[in-house]
Amino acid sequence: MANHSGDDDSASRASSNYSTTRTDPKKLFVQQVLEKAKKAELVQKQIQESLKKLHSAKKLLPVTGLGATPLMVDNLGRVLDESGNLIKEKPVIQSSLKVNRNLETERLKKQSSSSKQTTVIKRPESSQYIDPSLKGIKKRKRLEFRNVEPGSYIKQERKLQRHLENKSLGINKRAALEHKKRILELENQRLNAIFKRQVAQEKSVPIAQISDDINDINPNLIPLREPTVLNRDSWDDDEPPLEWWDRGIIILKSGEDPFKLADAKEHEYLTDVDPDDLVINEKRLGIYIEHPCKIDGKKRKIAPTPVMLTKEERKKLRRRKRQERLKRIQDKIRIGLIPPPPPKLKLSNLMNVLKNQSAADPSKVEMQVRQQMEERLSMHEKRNEERKLTPEQRSRKHAKKWQSIKNGHVEGALFTITSLADPKLLFKVDVNAQQLHLTGCCLVALEGPCIVIVEGSKLAIRRYVKLLMRRIKWDEINMENGATGANDVADTTTSVPVLACKQIWIGNLKRRFFPDWSVSFVNCDDEITEFLRPFKATHYFEMVQKYRDPLDDL
């Protein structure tokens, strides 16, 4: 019953409210505004309480001397400092190359090192805890990858070239710079001294009053008199009136040549001539203009160096060229430009080529075949005779083989032979030297060893050395002649000297000393030196005199 009565009361209240709101909307609006104001007051109270809590917490924390500066911003949102100026901030690069980052770090390191150098901390040199030897130890700088800037090596090359040029010319750049600096300093001192002297003259006071230190003025730098500038007319003109290239073009008014009158040399100028007496020789001038010849500006192509081929490659190349030549002939025969060659008849292919014709008259066919074979043989011999060299060409070819090239490699050799009394040996020595186109001489001494000097190409010298040292059997000749050595017990009065050939020297020569080959007979050492002196080859005889065989010491 009670619940029922409560429901009835709420229903009656709601009906009364509905009736009032429906009847008075202004009162409803005022109620809503009052409710909002109450809510705002509650929020403000809550904020004040939270702020009080924060202030109480700050009071509990330790207070520092530094305080946070207020953030000042302009209309555009940029940060300002205390005085109101705009703070310039470097834009942060989000991504960059590693090379650029390394360069930036190096720059910052240099700045930090330079700032550290300014403030040097004094450390004790030595103490119980500090070792002064460890003060200079530094960590090794890590090697980093660096790109080469374009043109750096070219600059190094040019700098090196200039240094080498100066060195070759004997120019010391450092000494030249020091000398130039010294000259400039002296010039500045001189100008300073002149200026102080002029100031002293204008004020009519001694120089000591103008300059604080009288010793800084070098008396040798002060001019003794005022410089005077001469007029152009009073200058001495050293240029001669007649140069050597005026010969024949400028003559005297009388028509005579002043160079001939003065008996001047080819490139001599004249000074003792009056320019008013000179005129131009118009006879030497003509209406024609001499144009210089045109120079061919085209660069000639340098022929490539030939490739050295092996024997097999040369055979292959020869075979290929022959095939190409035969193919061209076959193509011309197919077109009809050349008639086909007759068949090459031989006794072996007679029946295969002629077939029925050989069966009709075999003896006649055989005679024709033999005639063709003889013609081919005669043509072959004729071609060989045409290709054969004439005696002059053959001798020239033989000489070219043994002669050394002009301004080419020249070798020389020096020999001593015990005796050349045997004409056969002298003939071999003489004729072989002529055939190998050697220059030099053979000095046949009546008493003492004979001297053989030869000069020529490397191949000819090698062949001549082989002749004297290997091909001529000196031991066999000694046995035939019955020669005795120094250790033999035979009678020395009737003994024949032991023949032997020794090679004193062989090597390269700068030039030939002898124009040709010759054989001379000499009696003593003075005649040998007199013979060799015109050829400036006396050193060969000195080498023979100083030579000592190494086998003699064994």
TrEMBL record:
Keywords: mRNA processing, mRNA splicing, Nucleus
Subcellular location: Nucleus
Domain Pre-mRNA-splicing factor, first and last residues per copy: 128-390
CDD domains per the UniProt record, alphabetical: Prp3_C (cd24162)
Protein name: Uncharacterized protein
Annotated region (Disordered), positions in chain: 1-26, 106-125, 372-402
Species: Babesia duncani
Domain Small nuclear ribonucleoprotein Prp3 C-terminal: 414-544
Alphabetical list of PANTHER family matching this protein: U4/U6-ASSOCIATED RNA SPLICING FACTOR-RELATED, U4_U6 SMALL NUCLEAR RIBONUCLEOPROTEIN PRP3
GO CC list: U4/U6 x U5 tri-snRNP complex
Biased composition regions of type Basic and acidic residues, renumbered to the chain: 1-11, 372-394
GO terms, biological process: mRNA splicing, via spliceosome
Keyword field contains Nucleus: yes
Stretches with biased composition (Low complexity): 12-22
